[in-house]
Amino acid sequence: MSSPTPDALLGPADVRELAAALGVRPTKQRGQNFVIDANTVRRIVRTAGVRPDDVVVEVGPGLGSLTLALLEVAERVTAVEIDDVLASALPSTIAARMPERAERFALVHSDALHVRELPAPAPTALVANLPYNVAVPVLLHMLDTFPSIERTLVMVQSEVADRLAAAPGSKVYGVPSVKANWYADVKRAGAIGRSVFWPAPNVDSGLVSLVRRTEPVKTTASKAEVFAVVDAAFAQRRKTLRAALAGWAGSAPAAEAALVAAGISPQARGESLTVEEFARIAENRIAENRTAENRITENRPAENEEQSEQ
Question: Read out DSSP for 170-202?
Fold first, then answer.
């Protein structure tokens, strides 16, 4: 296998020249901030632990800075790009700067939130500089849709990185923390300065590493049922779970019953619970509902007999 040329990666001048040639100006609407530092993208690839046998999916490749760094190492790279101009230009950039790896690259021109399939072989890793405005939904969608993704490294706004990697009891622990932990073990993996982007963002960035759980969360509840509890608990995060889950359960007493059955204090708050504990609450509410349904079914014959006698 031939090695890429030393100047294959994009530097500040390359990024600006490409953008100018395409008539591209980064837009806030799509959260576009292009990485202009080759050392940073190589660092991301190293931190992600990308291996020569990996099939990497990248979301939001932009002008191709990280894409080229991934192609230096990975077996294959599939990039998902929503922008019409950027999507049309990226294959040409790869062919021009890294022709010996061009056949290892595939482009999917689509909104990542709507992607349901990718070119074979199945991805083993997700590495991306995610647009800040859709980072969490995109990350959760990709992890849910492509279970073959074992390792993920995303660059996101620093505050989002903190929320994703937060542990129970933290002030920033919330919906993203719990839902990410449903799929993976999550941790902060470094910080990225503002000067490596064009244009420089008004916020700091952070790297988040997610390694898929070797075993899923053990529960008889579905993901949707567990996530419904999580959403309800944090919709009113200052309230006790008995109060916060009242709407979800049907009433405060029903919420309390599900919590007690799950071994969780009704006075606890969502920020103190693990994903496994949220799953137990969902399980016990489902069990309660089934019991209630069974009682109704058992009573129906008797009611019908009384009516027939009348």
Answer: -TT-SHHHHHHHHHEEEEEEEEE-GGGEESPPS
Q: What is the pTM of this model?
A: 0.87
- Going through the chain in order, the beta strands assigned E by DSSP cover 34-35, 55-59, 76-81, 105-109, 125-129, 151-157, 184-192, 197-198, 205-212
- Strand partners for 56: 77, 125
From 17-31, 77-91, 151-165, 233-247, the region with the lowest mean pLDDT = 17-31
pLDDT, average across residues 143-172? 97
> What is the sign of the dihedral through the CA atoms of 190, 194, 200 and 204?
positive
Cα dihedral 133→187→195→71 (10° resolution): -90
Q: Which residues pair with 127 in a beta bridge?
A: 153
* Closest to 60 measured CA to CA, from 169, 137, 144, 149: 137
| Helix (H) or strand (E) run with residue 95 in it | helix 84-97
Q: What is the pLDDT of residues 247-303, one digit of tens each?
A: 999 999 999 999 999 999 999 999 999 999 999 999 998 766 655 544 444 555 544
Banded model confidence at residue 131, pLDDT cuts 50, 70, 90: confident
Closest CA to 196 of 123, 129, 250: 129
Give me 161's structure tokens: 């990185």
Among 142, 70, 133, residue whose Cα is nearest residue 110: 142
Report how far apart, in Å, the C-alpha atoms of 156 and of each of 30, 55, 192, 246 are: 13, 22, 9, 34
DSSP 34-77: EE--HHHHHHHHHHHT--TT-EEEEE--TTSHHHHHHHHH-SEE
User: What does the chain come to in residues?
Assistant: 310
* Tokens encoding 54: 């990996």
